[in-house]
Structure prediction request, 398 residues.
Amino acid sequence: MKKHKLLIFALSIMGIMAVSSCETMPNELNSFLSNQSSVVDTSFIENSEDLSSGETSTSENEASSDNNSLKDKDSSSLEDPSSDTSIENVSSSSSSVTSFEKEDGEKPDTNGLYYKLNDDAESYTCIGFYPEEDVDIEVEVPSTLNIPSMHNNLPVTIIGEYAFWGKEIKEVNIPNSVTEIKMKAFEQCYSLETVHFSDNITSIGDTAFSECESLQNFTLPSKLKKIENQAFGYCTSLTEVIIPNGTLSIGPSSFEENTNLEKVVIPDSVLTIGNNAFSRDENLSNVTLGKGCKVISAYMFYNCRALENLEIPEGVEEIQERAFEWCTSLKTLKFPSTLTRIGEYILNSSAYQKNVLESITYNGSKDDWENKVIRHQNWEFVNHKFQLICNDETIELR
Prediction:
């Protein structure tokens, strides 16, 4: 009888183990256990101190119930494509939520413009007609662009990078809340003719208005401090540029190849002017340089073929290489007494192009010229003689 009970106990344990690894027990085992239930004294199993079959059975039944529940859900989802929990709809639902969050954070204003909150959390950058993540959406661009001064009750202080790049805009009105125009903000706006700047703008970024070939004369902001690299390069309709007093720097190529530019006025406040700043301005004939800049940079007036007379103001210490190269109409040039260094080929005009230079006036003595001014051996590379007029003596050169 004891062996019989042990056999039944072993079979019971095997049945429990089978339940944990299979969804249903074999029919033969179910039948055997059912027939023996009236014979076996189940208290032997239930009361055993060494076993916890009751806890195991409960745990296994809960696990089996959970597995069946998940199986039913998976089966239901796969069978019904419209179910919210199907694989396709889960993906679609997730994408929809993400899209909604982006749109909710970047809704355009009534003008169709988007904005980005600045790091100070107290002002906005206008980023143009597109949210940052999507530049493929189609928008209707007005011919006259009026940038608002406020957004969500905060000031709009910056026009962002690429904000209106390549747009068919004819006129732009920038409010006084704006203090900075970032790089490429209006680059290649070929139809842009008129810009009304905010007086509070202090910086105009790299190529901000480059290749705006229809852009006509404008008044630069009175508080302007920096004009960055090529900010107004290739603006072929400009005829006059007057830099406001208070501006500190003019970047490289900032007004390069403005082929119809005739007049440039630079105030004493400007301390640095970059290479090629006015190069290839073929019609530039009237230049006023302030006394704040110490260096005439390389290629600064390169190929300015209409320039006939130029006075370098007192305070300038260096003229870098090729500064006036290919200025084939240059007749007179005035050097200051503060000049200490001259780079190579500043007057080079090639053996194939006649140079009409008549004289250079130096505001110092012959002795100063010969001992104080360090000159590259090819500084005066021209194809004819001209005069160097010092305060005390005239020297024939070439």
Observations:
- The longest strand covers residues 154-159.
- The CA atoms of residues 5 and 41 lie 8 Å apart.
- The helical segments are 2-21, 27-36, 43-46, 53-79, 87-105, 366-371.
